[in-house]
Amino acid sequence: METTTITRKPFLAALSGEVVRPAPIWLMRQAGRYLPEYRAVRARAPDFLRFCLTPKLATEVTLQPIRRFGFDAAILFSDILVPPYALGHGVRFETGEGPVLDRVTGAAQVEALDLARAREVWAPVMETVRRLRGALPPATALIGFAGAPFTVAAYMVEGGGSRDFAETRRMAFAEPALFGALVARLEEATIDYLSAQAEAGAEALMLFDSWAGVLSPGQFRRWVVAPTARIAAALRARFPTVGLIGFPRGAGPMLRAYAEAAGVQAVGIDTAMPASWAARELPAGMPGQGNIDPMALVAGGDALAEEVRSLMQAVAGRPWIVNLGHGIVPQTPPEHVAALVEMVRSAA
Ligand code: CP3
Q: What structural domains and CATH numbers belong to the chain?
């Protein structure tokens, strides 16, 4: 196997297509409730959106998992629902209930989305990015992110999370002009928001399309692949060195069409996807990121070690960034996270 002498940040080397071993590692939701030091900060900031928009606190909680575990990348602490909130849409986080949003039912709510206002509201996020670039250890990369238009639109149409996003899927088929206008507005905002993060110092960007997997193949191409391709092209033109990771969770075999046509530099692999499939089917040289089951991390011990062994074996020879297949869950023992980092760093 090819190995690499580290001349730049291992995460960025892997993202640019090098086979870096030991593979770089970071975890989705690595800043969060499983960490006592996160809960302590969060207890002083009961309003979650205000917390995301307070640079001092957002910077602190972004750094917490880096200090504790020495991950290869930090991800900006914010949320995918900050942009719709900044655009003037009603978004609230209720404790124990998750996000609650105003529902988009017609063109008026789409036309009310205001990008000029958004730039002012999300300005603190850019300040957080600047502070992080000054505070991270030299080998740690900084990832900025946004929700992809489809997933953000789905929360806006449903008024929150949903088991099957039935109303979103109905609207996309029955009222494509309305749903298309919403997605187009979010696409424009996403380009603006991610460009601002890159300008402020984000070294890589990630698009979370958490609910892409609810769509049929034709709808997936229309509402996931096409908007992502337009976002990726716009970012590429302005920031050619800033890699974009796309994560269309639940895409299944459509991941291949996504990897080929969405214009992203790397793809996130969810828990259900065999890593061996990704290693074989993704375009030659395209990095994958994933995909340890968050529950294997809760379990820890031999079960986790076996997952790490089989992952690294499945992706031998392919540029890879080790991560979970979905976000870390609050009941995860922090010692298991430390053990995971050690397992990955000592893997052949
Ligand atoms: O560490 C990181 O990964 C960076 C920060 C980050 C958060 N959310 C912080 C957060 C990121 C990248 C996200 C992405 C996000 N947010 C997604 C995409 C990834 C995924 O999980 O599919 C989605 C769908 C959301 C929307 C969201 N935010 C929900 C549904 C919830 C409530 C459910 C929950 O887990 O509490 C949130 C809240 C949220 N975002 C928390 C954190 C740390 C927990 C809030 C708290 O402290 O109480």
A: 31-271 (3.20.20.210)
